[in-house]
Protein 1
Amino acid sequence: MGGRPLVRSNFLVWVAAFLITLLLGCFAPARFRYDSFCSVCGMRRASTEWQIGRSVFAEFESHSLFTSHSLETTPVCAVLFEKGLVTQHEHRWCFGHGDGNGVRCALGAGNQLRNVAERREIANFVVALLDYTDKTTTQKWAKRLLDPEGPNQWRHVLSYLGREYVRTKYDFVKRLEETEAFIAEDVESKKETVAR
């Protein structure tokens, strides 16, 4: 009879170890990675958030344990700061894309900004705007390009403007005015279509 308490205590140790492992598995931190873009300057922020795992508690909101961020200067951001079109400011982050911790693909309004902020062609367009127009016009266009809630047509200005080489200030300004009028008309017609 002396062996039974030992078997029972071994059994309890195994059950306790199993329960502890199960609890650790349920509450083990899981990684959620995402990026965001500033709607003022186009800077990219890559973030990693360590959260309580969602696999067991999918219906509950995940809770962040801690988050780390790193900043990346995009081509558009570099031009805006270099040319003095934006100055130090409080970033307005727009969630772009994320995945992890049970989420495969999360998209936000900031995903619209990725195609603007990370494209060298858009940065060159901003430089051309500054060279051929004035600071106010350039800032107006930069605001349009980086507005995640604004009409998509503004962010696709290069496809409307054309990629031909513009040789003079007059040609650029004329083409820009035509493009601006065309996009504004397109935006209005889409609003009217939606209103019907």
Protein 2
Amino acid sequence: MKTSQMMFVALAATAAAATGCNGGVGMGLAPLDHPAMVVANSTQPQSQVTLYHQGALDPSASLTVVKIDNGFLRMRSESKQAAVEQLIFLLADADLAPSTSMPKGLKLRNQRLELPAPLAAEVLSKSMNSLTARAHGSLRYHADLLDEDGTLRATGPVATDAADFDVRATRYEFGVHVTVDAAPQGTCWKIPGVLDISNCSLYVELEGDSISD
């Protein structure tokens, strides 16, 4: 099992222990207009990162869509403030096409975006069944480059440029539906000497639970 996958399994196990459930969502969901903790770790298939990449591999910017295979979020909320305590997204493998300067292309493996430390967030709106919070900060990007002989070479970690991202939690009968989205303009992150990633659009849907805090 990949290191990133092992990390995600550990986070999911922690979430299950914290919410007192085994796999699915719990029935005793905390209202979101009271102090609560939202934990979500079931990623929906429409989750993805859309980005432009440019650099030694591709001098002209090219659009790429990368699926998000797994995700984990933990957020606590109070009356007017919230904190995104953990956030991690495991991205699908990406094979970028060859170019004149890199005739064998580029194979990215074990891609991961994560929050390096808890981040304060402003509560924009809240009710018993919904909560929207906005945070501003940087994520950390990790990836391995797959060489022709099968060797994995680590890149980074590198910090993304700071940007706003919104977290929306909606409580329903069987759980809490969470979306995370951001659309920073300009440079998002760099793989030094290889790629500049810009004009990203991050959209993630997760299913989870809420418990009283």
Protein 3
Amino acid sequence: MSNVRYNAGTMTIEVDGLDDVSAVLGDLRKKTPAVAKVAINATARQARKLMIAEAKAIGICFGDK
């Protein structure tokens, strides 16, 4: 299980548990940072969409969007 910390001051994300991901990747172990980046960005995009949908549902206006 991974533990994720976000530092807004330095805009960094720390992820514990990437050793597990590396183990699963096997021979592609050197791709671990890229795999983590894709997973983090996909999660951020999904969270953004959900937050926008919830804001629209309660009537917060976003201008032209």
